[in-house]
Write a structure and sequence with these properties.
Distance between the termini: 54 Å
Mean pLDDT: 90
Number of helices: 28
Shape: globular
Largest sheet: 8 strands, mixed
Low-confidence stretches: 139-154, 571-603
Structural class: alpha/beta
Strand content: 15-25%
Helix content: 25-40%
Length: 908
């Protein structure tokens, strides 16, 4: 059953276009003829979820399956969530507008330790029991919250999670999911769909279906496993694997093209993956350990995907994505080829944080240009010793060479990432961060150039499962002390902005991320106490309070104190120990310098062999290798990158996970030069268009961005402005209120080459959404004033209701009374905050009662047409001011139900 959303998705909520599901390249498949129906949900607000590359890829892959469809859902904003609860309406999928309970399978991306509270919020809003136990035991039983008012069902969707956090350690969340998808999902999810279809046809029970799914490599079904007293996890039955394999897939760039949102997202660009996996071996880096082996994408496939994607989407920016883009040897060649091909289209390239030691003039050329983007490097540590301990593989000379190259190529501001709290860190290493930044500034000075600015993010190291540092811990007090130490140091350094991570949330992330099944109750309690959107800065205080209370109520505050005090590592494990072992417990405490070779050699092996809650997840990396790499870290020994040097014997490469795929770079094309904006104005066209249906919920700024993308997709020769940020010469006459419809909007387009009016009309209309119809196109003189300067008046149809019993005769009398008056004074507040009186009657040219409607459910409403002043000097007559006139003459309160702009009238 389709959810009636018309009264929910309205202009009074923030960014209602989030929930329309009508984006360009969205896939709409027939519900009735598709046996398996997925919903992929990203448990964040739309702007974050809709731009997530993994979300887009899996959505496209599932919709490419002939007997499967995939819809989407996102965490609603607080305003819509409140509406859903007030109206007892279940959370819905954005495309079909169907309740999430109607689908066969519901998947969540879990990529952040504290992100599960958002998942519980979405499940509750959807009317789905929160735990697998409740879903099995609540057939015909009502739940809580929204569930109380929804017809109970004998079947709930299968609920699963995927993503980095779910793969690394699913145990803190085991109660909430029917199964976990481990690793890459491109091949795994379609396999799950096939098994689900067979089980559905065979009429299998939920448990039988999950047992079939458990046979698929990469599927972990927590209910078939149990936790031992030591925290380890073991099968409850012989027909499920003891260890569950992480899946590995080859990236396919073509599936990255899709979903062009109408609202601005956090990554508002085309993103193409060029390399999956990283073998650098940074010892703190969980993604690097969980995505091995490294797999390069063929350069020609990357170029083809970018060129096709930019034409199909109309984006003006693209990004190449990898954990370490600089390790993709074809990066300069691919970037230069694309830059040359799209040279005349004002396209820019962005890259995520990259290896500073590989940054050279070739990469600078593909990143630079008219719209030069930001540049981010991650030295991680401030001294060579610390970079060796974490196996960063970066020398001071390489750091300086990369930063200096960027400065010489025109960058005046660079972002740097550092961490504090790493194993073996001393105060000298912490101060070394400030000394390194000061040194880089001194080395990058020149006449006529302002000092090099740095924007620093200094995060607190949080140990992650499946890394050599998973046995380490740092106290909150020590983090605070080191942050204060750096604050003192940076006071003496100019042109540096420093951002620190909140130490409270770091401790929470550590506590949950390395937790066991006992933490499921903590996650649920935290959500019940108000936790949610915990990664957002404005929610930190509330999140910390909720999580702290939840931990206390679960009687686990003693364990959390161990994390806060830096004691929760396996060197403190309770076991029979010798006096020598007692000494070893201090080896990884925060105040240890780890500089003593004798202390290093006394590391006890038995404490590292104690079972961990995530040992049953087979990531391919041998636990013994992690232990050995920890030993190498204590010795500050470097392990080379096995993609380019010898094998490090981590255990990944083989039949189950494959091998590194490193592709040699093709020849780098000759640089064809930067984009030069074509400012030629050969033709000006004026377009009359409408804004109807769902597109009324698109904001003015979003509409401007939409026109830009439509012109790019249509291939029309638009002219650009000059200057540092060239913009297409598209000018909308005026803005339209959010939620208002129109049949009389005007836009001016300036072209570099004359185009037949009919051809322009056809190309533009072909790319426009159906709810933005094109009515007319006219060529105007190049020297004519812009439409925005010629505005004189506007004609509106407004639908108004009276909050009292009325008759059509009364409405007509009120209209006549207003027309008969010469003065109707209105107090207006200026932008500067001053009050002034204006005569609204001077601004009203025509007023007419078009029709009245009366219904049993509502008071009488009327449609009123008016023509009023609409000049850009502020001489406007707004629809709400017509209500003021009515209330003045009638003594009745009115409500504005809808605004429709009939036409804009231009002067000569």
């Amino acid at each position: 059953m389709v959810v009636a959303v018309e009264k929910l998705i309205t202009s009074d909520i923030l960014k209602p276009a989030r929930y329309l599901g009508n984006e360009l390249l969205a896939v709409h498949k027939d519900w009735d003829t598709t046996p398996i129906r997925w919903v992929l949900t990203y448990p964040e607000v739309y702007e974050v979820g809709a731009s997530n590359l993994g979300h887009i890829i899996l959505y496209n892959i599932l919709n490419a399956q002939p007997r499967q469809l995939c819809d989407r859902a996102y965490l609603p904003g607080k305003d819509l969530a409140a509406k859903l609860r007030e109206t007892n309406t279940p959370l819905f999928a954005v495309e079909s507008k169907r309740s999430l309970t109607e689908f066969d399978i519901l998947g969540f991306s879990l990529s952040y330790e504290l992100g599960a509270t958002n998942i519980l919020e979405m499940l509750d809003l959807a009317g789905i029991p929160l735990t697998w136990q409740e879903r099995q035991g609540s057939r015909g039983a009502e739940g809580q919250g929204v569930r109380e008012s929804i017809d109970t069902q004998s079947y709930f969707p299968l609920i699963f999670a995927g993503g980095q956090t779910a793969t690394s350690n699913p145990e803190p969340y085991a109660d909430f999911f029917d199964f976990i998808a481990l690793g890459d999902g491109e091949e795994l999810l379609p396999e799950i769909g096939l098994v689900l279809e067979e089980g559905k046809q065979a009429g299998l029970s939920r448990e039988q279906l999950l047992l079939d799914l458990a046979q698929i490599p990469g599927v972990y079904v927590p209910q078939f496993y149990d936790m031992a007293e030591d925290g380890s996890v073991h099968p409850l039955r012989p027909d499920v694997p003891k260890r569950i394999l992480r899946r590995v897939a080859t990236p396919i760039p073509a599936y990255s093209i899709g979903l062009v949102p109408y609202v601005e997202t956090v990554h508002d660009r085309l993103t193409i993956e060029i390399r999956r996996g990283c073998t650098r071996g940074c010892r703190f880096c969980q993604p690097g350990m969980l995505t091995r082996p490294a797999r390069d994408v063929e350069p020609d496939k990357v170029v083809e995907a970018i060129e096709q994607g930019m034409r199909a989407t109309g984006y003006n920016e693209f990004s190449l994505l990898s954990l370490s883009c600089s390790d993709y040897l074809s990066l300069p060649a691919v970037g230069m080829e694309i830059k040359n091909r799209l040279k005349n289209e004002n396209i820019s390239l962005t890259l995520p944080s990259q290896r500073v030691d590989r940054f050279d003039e070739n990469i600078a050329n593909i990143l630079g240009g008219t719209r030069q983007g930001g540049l981010t490097f991650a030295p991680e540590a401030g001294t060579q010793r610390m970079r060796d301990i974490v196996n960063k593989g970066l020398t001071n000379e390489e750091l300086l060479r990369g930063v200096k190259t960027a400065w010489e190529q025109g960058w005046d501001k660079i972002k740097l990432y550092f961490m504090i709290g790493l194993p073996g860190e001393t105060d000298a290493d912490v101060v070394g961060i400030a000394e390194t930044v000061s040194w880089l500034q001194r080395e990058c000075r020149g006449k006529g150039r302002k000092p090099l600015n740095f924007n620093l993010t200094i995060s607190n190291f949080t140990p992650k499962p499946h890394t050599p540092f998973q046995w380490h811990s740092v106290s909150t007090a020590e983090f605070k002390r080191k942050q204060n130490l750096l604050r003192q140091e940076f006071r003496r350094i100019k042109a540096v902005k420093v951002n620190f991570t909140d130490v409270r949330i770091s401790a929470m992330e550590d506590f949950v991320g390395r937790g066991d099944r006992n933490l499921s109750k903590v996650v649920r309690l935290a959500w019940e106490l108000g936790a949610g959107m915990d990664s957002w800065y404005e929610n930190l205080d509330r999140a910390f309070s909720a999580w702290g209370s939840a931990i206390a109520q679960a009687d686990l505050d003693w364990k959390y104190r161990q994390v806060e005090n830096g004691e929760w590592n396996l060197f403190h494990a309770e076991a029979p120990r010798s006096t020598e072992d007692e000494e070893n417990t201090q080896l990884l405490t925060p105040n240890s310098s780890l500089s003593s070779t004798d202390a290093i050699n006394r590391v006890s092996s038995h404490s590292l062999d104690i079972p961990l809650p995530w040992d049953h997840i087979d990531t391919g990396i041998d636990k013994k290798w992690l232990q050995e790499d920890l030993q190498r870290a204590l010795e500050a020994a470097i392990v080379p990158d096995c993609s380019f040097e010898g094998c490090s014997h981590c255990g990944v490469c083989g039949t189950d996970f494959g091998h590194n795929v490193v592709i040699k770079s093709p020849v780098i094309p000759k640089f064809a030069g930067e984009f030069v904006p074509n400012t030629t104005k050969a033709q000006r066209l004026r377009v009359w268009f409408g804004k109807q249906g769902n597109m009324a919920l698109i904001s003015h700024l979003d509409l401007i961005r939409l026109f830009d993308r439509i012109v790019r997709r249509s291939g029309l020769p638009i002219a650009f402005t000059g200057g540092f940020h060239p913009m297409p010469r598209i000018s909308l006459a005026t803005a339209l209120a959010l939620g208002a419809t129109s049949s009389g909007e005007i836009a001016d387009f300036e072209l570099t080459v004359p185009v037949e009016v009919d051809t322009f009309f056809r190309k533009l209309a072909h790319e426009m959404p159906t709810d933005i119809p094109i009515y007319n196109v006219e060529q105007i003189d190049l020297k004519a004033s812009a439409a925005t300067q010629l505005l004189e008046s506007a004609e509106y149809l407004i639908t108004v209701t009276a909050l009292a019993e009325t008759t059509p005769i009364q409405w007509q009398t009120w209209i006549d009374t207003i027309k008969a008056k010469e003065e109707l004074w209105y107090e207006q507040t200026t932008k500067s905050g001053k009050s002034q009186l204006i005569n609204l009657r001077d601004r009203l040219f025509e007023l007419e009662l078009v029709e009245t409607h009366n219904s049993i459910a509502e008071s009488m409403s009327s449609v009123i047409r008016y023509l009023g002043s609409y000049r850009q000097d502020g001489l406007l007559l707004r629809p709400e001011q017509i209500l003021f006139m009515l209330e003045t003459v009638a003594g009745v309160e009115f409500q504005l139900l809808h605004i429709h702009r009939n036409r804009l009238i231009l002067g000569v």
